[in-house]
Amino acid sequence: MSKPGIFRTKSIFKIQHEIAGGSSAPGVSLKRHLGATSLVLFGIGVLIGAGIFSLTGMAAGLYAGPGIVISFAISAVACALAGLCYAEFASMVPAAGSVYTYAYTTLGEFFAWIIGWDLVLEYAAGAATVATSWSAYLLKFCADIAHPFPAQWAASPFDVVTLASGEHAHAIFNFPAAFIVVAMSVVLVKGIRESSMLNAVLVALKLFVIFAFIGLGWKYMVPANHQPFIPSNTGEFGHFGWSGVFRGSAVIFFAYIGFDAVSTAAQEAKNPRRDMPIAILGSLFVCTVLYCVFAYVLTGLANYKEFSGLSGLAPVAVAISHTPYKFFTILVEVAILAGFSSVIMILLLGQSRVFYAMSQDGLLPAMFSELHPKFRTPWKSNILFAVFVGLFAGLVPGHVIGEMTSIGTLLAFVIVCISVIVLRRTMPDAPRAFRVPLVPWVPIAGALSCLAIMASLPIETWIRLVVWLVIGCLLYFSYSRWNSHLHRNP
Are 382 and 346 a contacting pair, CB within 8 Å? Predict the structure, then answer.
């Protein structure tokens, strides 16, 4: 029986009944098209963006030196601990709502709403941030191929840009950022099959470039650049030494953001109880290996001190300058554009699926769970976010919301880890196709490691998170609590 008030929980058996089609009209449920390979590619698609090319060099130059390889491993451990918890829930409750649904079954409706609202921060705001970066790299790519794009139409009105004449002026609108959001939304409306096919192409392109960089750069590495592997601390916490390695892990954690979005596609998987754990843990493993090897080659080609103060593509350009393959920078730009495109698409997919689940529970208006009769996608939700995120990306500077994505993701990880412990106590006999080992120690370690990374983020980021959650609470107590299906039909 559901608990009273804001802590009422939704029965896991009720959710499983809804997933089986008990609450949907025949033929209008989400289409089950994704197999294990497609799901793993979704994970790789959202994990590998530009972070591997830009954050790796910056974190090595400022914090960890060649030890950035260890930083990637540390962040991977934190993600893997949370990933194990995601895998158990996804195998039990293969629902579109991901951690929102998990929290609804364990911690109660209010916490479910909070995490759903938090996922807006991760997915919608993250997609807008990535779109502004996509625009910046498109601008550089166009300049490198001698077809410059008008700077006034590739930045926020709050940004000052340099015109072709050398004059400075305020931008008008970030058209490329809005365009890529709308383009990826159109693909999502068309269907999960089309989204999966496009993602596979984009993933293949960026993996080709990464493997080419590793293969071509390996023989040009200088062993002396890896000595010492962990440079001595400068006397300031976080600047080299082991404290720098841990600071580096917090900085490059952004490169791991998004693997949880795979779980939002559980309701569109052919065999979610088997394939979701494979997809979540498999994509994490593949990307961790790629990140570590890439970082090793990058810091082997150029001394880590050469990366200090560099951003964007500059670290990769510096590393490539130590090889005969100067043209490779153009290929990296293409890989980044492809990588960002798939990241934006999957983040928008995750957002629409979370809103789909929340709408089905009555916490959001019914329009968010209405499926297109032909494509069987939440098309109204996709269109709404195409407009909202597109305008946001076009009008707001990307740096304003960048760090919020990281803290929102980490909070989601903490809640999933706690939820596994709660559900093991409240429903110990519920069927689980995948079980987290060593409960409660693995979930506790996952929650603590994520909290430790959160603690390294600036205080301003915490303040913005609190403000965002306060706004969410106002919406919950003014609308969602009274329209909840559990409230109306206890």
Answer: no
Check if the beta carbon of residue 38 is closer than 8 Å to that of residue 342: no
Domain ranges of the chain: 31-488
Which CATH number applies to 31-488?
1.20.1740.10
> 123, 354 in Cβ contact below 8 A?
yes
Report the SS3 class of residue 168: strand
Secondary structure class of 34 (helix, strand, coil): strand
Whole-number pLDDT of residue 155? 78
Cβ(453)–Cβ(336) under 8 Å?
Answer: no
- For residue range 406-442, list pLDDT tens digits in order: 677 778 788 888 888 988 888 888 778 888 998 999 9
User: DSSP secondary-structure letter at 35?
Assistant: -
Angle at 55 between CA 320 and CA 230, to 5 degrees: 85
Question: Which element (helix H / strand E) includes 161?
Answer: strand 160-162
Render pLDDT for 159-197 as a digit per residue (tens, 0 to 9): 777 766 677 777 788 899 999 999 999 999 988 788 888
Distances in Å between the alpha carbon of 414 and those of 6, 94, 421? 20, 19, 11
| DSSP one-letter code for 23 | T
DSSP summary character for residue 154? B
User: How far is the CA of 220 from the CAs of 215, 297, 299, in angstroms?
Assistant: 10, 9, 11
- Tally Cβ neighbours within 10 Å of residue 163: 11
3-state helix, strand, coil in the chain (%, to 5): 70, 0, 25
Whether 454 has a pLDDT exceeding 60, the answer reads yes
Q: Which candidate, 421, 343, 450, places its Cα nearest to that of 79?
A: 450
**CA angle, residues 267, 268, 269, in degrees to nearest 5:** 95
Please report, as a single letter, which amino acid is at residue 211.
Answer: F
* Rounded CA separation 244/68 (Å): 9
Of 342, 291, 348, which is closest to residue 69 (Cα–Cα)? 291
Burial class of 323 by CB neighbour count within 10 A (0 to 12, 13 to 18, 19+): middle
